[in-house]
Amino acid sequence: MFSHTCQLRVRYSESDQMGTFYNSRLLEWMEVGRSELTRAAGKSYAEWEGAGVMAPIVEANLKFKGRAGYDDLLNLETCCEREGRARLKFNTVITMAETGQPVAEGFTIHALTSPEGRPIRIPGWIEDLLNGEKHEQ
Hints:
Elements: E1 2-9, H1 25-40, H2 45-50, E2 57-64, E3 73-82, E4 87-96, E5 102-111, H3 124-130
Antiparallel strand pairs: 1-3, 2-5, 3-4, 4-5
């Protein structure tokens, strides 16, 4: 299983009068974590698509654990694991960078498909990512 942590600062437009982030932002932040994980593994998601591998979300689970407001720095820790023969599960834990306090956690499950939308098996180079083997770009 490959894991990667990146940071994100809460922008003004993502916060509200209650002093926390809009709940819809969590899925966007999880996308940032997934994108940075694939890039850190040596093949950006744009390169996945260029290689004919699409990964639409088929399921999402979100748990809100705490607040994060404007200008807070967050850690997004994302890991990827196999979810059957043609699906991947991306788990994300979001914490406050300075204190480690939990903000949110969740997962998304992605079906791997061809550009035409037909399911495909997990390619060998993605299997390598799952086994923690980093590929240089």
